[in-house]
Amino acid sequence: QVQLQESGPGLVKPSETLSLTCNVSGGSVSPDYWTWIRQPPGQGLEWIGYVHASGSTNYNPSLKSRVTISVDTSKKQISLKLSSVTAADTALYYCARIPNIDSWPFDYWGQGTLVTVSS
Amino acid sequence: DIQMTQSPSSLSASVGDRVTITCRASQSIPNYLNWYQQKPGKAPKLLIYAASSLQSGVPSRFSGSGSGTDFTLTISSLQPEDFATYYCQQSYSFPYTFGQGTKLDIK
Asked: Taking burial as the number of CB atoms within 10 A of a residue's CB, which of A36, A69, A98, B41 is the most buried?
């Protein structure tokens, strides 16, 4: 069974870069897609972007200028970097797997990591 | 972006009730529609993918239907563990988008 575990600083200062890592266990990173989703406290879900095991990416245009998602297949890690953060980036950040099946669902999720943007 | 609109936004029901949640897309998304359940403090859990396919391990009281722009999630007989928030999500075009959620609580 695939398990995902997000990690990273829980507090980031405004204008700095948020950096998170998602560790994959119980399976291989290839040949799937891996995605990041965020959820501001008490609000709904926002898709951030994904990376394929090959390294190809696709980002939400609302964040595209600030976001980088990458994969290290040898370490079985997916990384998220979000630059120039503001308070609006405060959220619970989840990583998830997208298997190559009909409708590209997010079938395995990490437990999420809360990132607060504050000075 | 494709807008996903769920109705109702909240719903009160009793154990044993049959419940239906609706999700409407702002344009056709064939069957690229997924449903998730989220309990407080937990990550979302995939229930239904491709509009009507039951994810492995999900009880058969959950079912999905629809295609094009209109979709439904039905819980045939509510159990105590089903009280949660439910989200639909489209993966037909980028950016992937979610509905605003439907909070299902106990009447």
From this structure: A36
pLDDT-derived band at A102, boundaries 50, 70, 90: confident
Q: In A, residues 10-69, which contact B (CB 8 Å cutoff)? A: 44-47, 58-62
B72 to A1, A54, A107, B3, B51: CA distances (angstroms): 29, 35, 19, 16, 8
Using the Cβ of A103 and the Cβ atoms of chain B, whether some distance falls under 8 Å is answered with: yes
From first to last of its 107 residues, chain B has per-residue pLDDT tens of 999 999 999 999 999 999 999 999 999 999 999 999 999 999 999 999 999 999 999 999 999 999 999 999 999 999 999 999 999 999 999 999 999 999 999 88
Query: How many Cα atoms within 13 Å fall on the side-chain side of residue B9?
Result: 3
The whole-angstrom separation of Cα B72 and Cα B85 is: 15
Q: How far is CA B71 from CA B40, B50, B76, B78, in A?
A: 25, 11, 16, 19
Using alpha carbons, select from B93, B50, B73, B8 the residue that is nearest to residue A60. B93
**What is the full DSSP assignment across B80-100?**
GGG-SEEEEEE-SSSSPEE--
Closest-CA residue of chain A to B94: A60
DSSP state of A109: E
Residue B3, both tokens: 């807008």
